[in-house]
């Protein structure tokens, strides 16, 4: 659950597939660009891509692979950002800036 100002929003989405789904397939795939809080394993990723390849053309298979790469980068950035914020709290913002400048000079 993600919490925003006391309101909880589940980090899950779903769609009902019907005869009009194919007309909106780009929009459906585009929803996968929203930030994920869970990253499938490599094995799961391969299975998902394989499943999509059976039902959609190569454009969407490539798009899905790009989405996986994007989500991995977002997750790494989020962890790095959280780590930096924790370090700033521990050593202080001013000390963090000083240490950063010293490291740049090395």
Question: What this model shows, in words?
Answer:
The protein is mainly α and 106 residues long. The protein has one domain (2-105). The chain is 63% helix and 6% strand. It has 4 helices and 2 strands; from the N terminus they run E-E-H-H-H-H. Strands 1-2 form a two-stranded antiparallel sheet. Helix 2 runs antiparallel to helix 3 (58-91) and helix 3 (58-91) crosses helix 4. The termini are far apart. The model has no long low-confidence stretch (mean pLDDT 79).
Mean pLDDT: 79
What is the straight-line distance between the termini? 42 Å
Instruction: Report the portion of residues in β strands.
Output: 5-15%
Task: Count the beta strands.
Answer: 2
* Outline type: elongated
Provide the domain count.
Answer: 1
Radius of gyration: 20 Å
Alpha-beta content class: mainly alpha
